[in-house]
Amino acid sequence: MTLSFCPGMVRAIMLGLLTLALTGCGEPDDPPAAEAAPAVTEQTVAIPDTAQSDAAYYDELRARWLELERAAQAEPEHAPAAPFQQIVEEPQPIASAPAAAATPAIGIIIDDVGHSLIRGRRLIALPAPVALAILPHTQSAQRLASEAGAAGKTVMLHQPMESGAALPIGQGGLYAEMNRAELETTLQANLNSFIPIQGLNNHMGSRLTSNREAMDWVMQVLGARGLFFIDSRTSPDTQAAFAAEAQGVRHLSRDVFLDNERTAVAIDAAFQRALELARKQGTALVIGHPYPETLDYLERRLAGLEQVEGVLVVSVEELLARKYRR
């Protein structure tokens, strides 16, 4: 007998599996308990015995988050959305162009950091000021934040926000049904969960970033703390840049996702797009993930990039300085 499933049933099954699997999303490469504890208390995450063999599986689950979120935007009565890379950007507040003599520059942010100490340390060791966007309440969050800060790397909170596909977003998530007090309490707790933090970007968030009132609340918290905001642009309807501008919060928006496809050829093509954008508009902002393929590529590519390509890799703070320099 042949069984058939409608798309809605398949989607429901996938989301159920994601919810179960992501509850144990740690990796077994963190230090033993005998090591000194960080100054800020971390949440303890139980690691299953099979975590080593499941590491690639968890990576694949994380890779599917954005894909599923994008697919949900095409449902049900609307025409299918254009491929994500071709979505026309919402109008953004126009900033001064960089000085003509300025060398083209890209900034790189790596999301989803905090589950793996080994991968986080590979990021910190990269020969360029790559920013670490760390998920709150992950087992290696404070240790990696401390080491990255000591190495002069930018540390960001990778804030989970509600997605249009109703995907699980993890502990510390912000949801559209939250009132202002609930949202602010959750966000403040996440911002206090590890130090240092210079700014914030959204993890998923196609639903929440499209909610102007919720984004106004987020920006008020960031403005009071003097933190910047990076819009990962998981939705063409995002209101984040407008809310940030209204609250006087310095902000940038993602130009290129580096590793939507986890092959060396696809990652290189995305990186080349970023270089071309930087040469054309002065700067470009790239977001990637701590996949083995991405780490391997960056370790090979970043050394001597300016000499080879004539493009600098700069910190997120330098990109902000170029945007807001008058």
UniProtKB/TrEMBL annotation:
Signal peptide (UniProt feature, chain positions): 1-26
InterPro entries, per database record: Divergent_DAC, Glyco_hydro/deAcase_b/a-brl
GO biological process: carbohydrate metabolic process
Residues that span the membrane, as ranges: none
CDD domains: CE4_DAC2
Taxonomy, superkingdom: Bacteria
Pfam families cross-referenced by the UniProt entry: Polysacc_deac_2
Keyword annotations of the record: Signal
Keyword set includes Repeat: no
Protein name from the UniProt record: Divergent polysaccharide deacetylase
